[in-house]
């Protein structure tokens, strides 16, 4: 058989195999759609049954006061007896009214000793029946899309970082900010890093000034135009760069700009905590190793690794009630007074760059939260609301990308999921 005929036969077999693959994939998707429809139908039937049951339940009698429990033990709700109303009574009890309006009570608090900080813990798990009270607050801070706005109004974010060794991190942070909804994203990096970062995307504004003789003055000129600052992605630990970053933070604080500090920016804070200590619009986003370094720098004693929540609270208080996002199996967010935990499903994939996605998106959420009217966050610290929005979005991107790429998932794959993840969490 000639080579041409062999090639022709091979192509025919390849096309046939491809057709079979797509046919099987279509059948699988149809079966999956059918399964979801059946599951949705069962859920509707269950809700209807619950509604019928609640229709026959009267207002519950007041619950007896629970005896205070020892420190750090969750308080359990006492059993409340229900009585069946007379025949024909169809008034909805308060519990059903809350259920119908999707208004759920906050998660259980940790009962502390008198005089200690009261924790307000909330966990967000996508797909569960329990609606969290923080996601609606995040939604209220997100500006609507309208043709009446001008360029830059929804966010001009500055990234301080990018050196010869690290060019990916500032790119990930800057492009994530754009994908979340910022209008403009600036990267202030070293001269060597600028051409590389520019080559990644034409959508970023790259300033090769971070290692220049007048770096602080050059960047300060842009501060009035920026809505938030992300310091640390790809910054490196060269003394001159850290010194410039410190001075930029000081000048940004004078303008009241939200400042997110991550990566090597946290190395700077561990060396000189006063650079951000007490600044109420500052947010730190350490992983466990960075957190340990910060904790031991502030407390001059080893970290108690058995109680991350308590340690996070202590560090936040020591830093002047600075908002802290301790990244881990669950993300712990605290300002020393209140605490949120984001335990939404992510994945087991821990590729580099995920923290840059978080810090870049947090820069945008922080601008939105601090620009919103006070009633949008219902009195909650805007930094907490912004941090919860960014952590839940990052985890959702991780989850979606992992379902598609499994072990091969990278941060670039996660960034491609920002649009659909954002819509799923905040616009559905």
UniProtKB/TrEMBL annotation:
Coiled-coil stretches noted in the UniProt entry, renumbered to this chain: 7-34
Binding annotation for (6S)-NADPHX: 234, 287-293, 356
Keyword entries, A-Z: ATP-binding, Coiled coil, Lyase, NAD, NADP, Nucleotide-binding, Phosphoprotein
A Pfam family assignment: Carb_kinase
Binding residue positions for ATP: 327-331, 346-355
One Gene Ontology molecular-function label: ATP binding
Enzyme class: lyase
A GO BP entry: metabolite repair
Domain YjeF C-terminal stretches: 134-425
This enzyme's EC code(s): 4.2.1.93
Highest taxon in the source lineage: Eukaryota
Reaction it catalyzes: (6S)-NADHX + ATP = ADP + phosphate + NADH + H(+); (6S)-NADPHX + ATP = ADP + phosphate + NADPH + H(+)
Cofactor(s) needed by this chain: Mg(2+)
InterPro entries registered for this protein in UniProt: CARKD
Family: Belongs to the NnrD/CARKD family.
Function: Catalyzes the dehydration of the S-form of NAD(P)HX at the expense of ATP, which is converted to ADP. Together with NAD(P)HX epimerase, which catalyzes the epimerization of the S- and R-forms, the enzyme allows the repair of both epimers of NAD(P)HX, a damaged form of NAD(P)H that is a result of enzymatic or heat-dependent hydration.
Name of this protein: ATP-dependent (S)-NAD(P)H-hydrate dehydratase
